[in-house]
TrEMBL record:
Gene3D superfamilies: 3.30.530.20. InterPro entries: START-like_dom_sf (IPR023393). This is Uncharacterized protein. It comes from the Bacteria.
Length: 151
């Protein structure tokens, strides 16, 4: 009976679009980069290094624990705010959240040898899956621009 059910394989960028669509106020910025997936994801997934170079709202991120693809981190913003983030980090996919913050990143190779990346995130409404949308798209666009320059 189960062989009659339709199936769909979603790449990480499509998955991020779907997840963000369920979060009120979430914005997704996508960019196709002319760099191979391995190089792009190496920067994006380096939470303690490259991540802070393109996501400049974070002045420092310290990974405090890993268990397979589960990760815990302590982030400090450039304004001095701190957040204990928990979530998943695997090739092409990162979703981290704290009580007041959501960060989502995805990347997938393109047929031309480049990489499609998607970013979402922002200040979280406590107790709800919602993001305060003020300035989110502008900051995500700036982060995508910086990432493009880095790779």
């Amino acid at each position: 009976m189960t062989e009659l059910w339709p199936t769909a394989d979603l790449d990480p960028v499509r998955r991020l679009r779907i997840l963000a669509a369920g979060v009120p106020g979430a914005r997704v910025v996508e960019r196709e980069l002319d760099a191979p997936f391995e190089r792009v994801w190496a920067v994006m997934a380096d939470l303690e290094g490259g991540f802070g170079e393109f996501q400049t709202d974070m002045s420092r991120v310290t990974v405090t624990g890993r268990d397979g693809d589960r990760v815990a981190a302590l982030a400090r913003s450039r304004f001095g705010f701190r957040a204990r983030l928990h979530g998943v980090l695997r090739p092409g996919w990162c979703w981290l959240q704290s009580r007041f913050l959501i960060l989502g990143m995805a990347a997938t190779p393109t047929p031309a040898g480049g990489t499609l990346v998607a970013l979402t995130g922002g200040l979280r409404v406590p107790g709800r899956a919602a993001i305060i949308p003020l300035g989110t798209r502008r900051e995500l666009t700036r982060a995508a621009d910086r990432l493009s320059t880095l790779v």
